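User: hey, got a sec? need SDR family NAD(P)-dependent oxidoreductase folded
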Amino acid sequence: MPVLDSFSLTGKVTVVTGAARGIGAALAVAVAEAGSDVALLVRDAAAAEPVREQVAALGVRAGVYTADVTDRAGLEDVRDAITAELGVPDVLVNNAGTCIHRAAFEVSDEEWDTVVDTNLTGLWRTSQVFGRAMADRTDGRRGGSIVNIGSISSIIVNRPQWQPGYNASKAAVHQLTKSLAVEWAPLGIRVNALAPGYVRTAMAPVDDPAFKPRWIDDAPMQRAAEPEELGPTVVWMASDASSFMTGSVVVVDGGYTAV
Ligand code: NDP
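Assistant: Yep! Here you go:
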């Protein structure tokens, strides 16, 4: 296959969680630009409508599906609806995530549970639900590709905006990625993680004077990423262009963890 053709997602179905805004919205558009039909898995359907319109304008099928990654029954319902309406998903982008900024002594059990149940257990739950469909598919295709959005917070400790639960959950996502990759390789399901550095979204106030000195001024490239800059890497990780890659964590951080 010619090298650029291997990046194509034409004819495939991609599920993106947390696709109504931020990185998830940019990734939904990126996989659509690569030719994939897209299922936007969101908590608020109305909020996702502008993204759905942007994706549909690219000439692929685009659907909005409402589910919370902390709700297994809701995820199973949505998986079945996507399979019936678009086909068995070929790609799952586990992007949904949350962060509670609190110093360690001040984090409540409830706050800890929210972060871990979304970032780690939610990603696990979503992978298990959609991985089942990839493993059991009878449409002549085999397996699929799962891209987990991790973070450099698994490698470094973000400061001075403390987030112990977030850091721990993202580190666990990277090890869960490897665990599922090894177990599901015989099923043809590849599982990889992307670890972004600072990206300009609601989650990361990169221009806040309290954080800019450490997050931006200390960074080799002296800037944060725009969400759209992650798109090409995720298309590569989702597509046949990375056909021999599984269990890998790809760091895209402008050199932040290199120094
Ligand atoms: P945003 O806060 O802008 O977006 C987070 C998304 O996750 C929202 O769409 C949100 O939905 C969704 N979400 C949160 N909780 C749930 C849930 N329980 N069920 C379903 N969806 C949920 O942040 P980003 O776009 O920056 O973050 C996207 C991913 O990238 C996250 O996993 C984050 O940890 C990761 N990341 C971000 C970095 C950054 O610097 N921004 C750096 C490294 C990683 P809703 O719109 O309904 O709130």
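Quick note: The pocket of NDP is lined by residues 17-18, 20-24, 43-44, 47, 68-70, 95-98, 118, 122, 149, 151, 196, 198-199, 201-204 (CB under 6 Å). Let me know if you need anything else on SDR family NAD(P)-dependent oxidoreductase.
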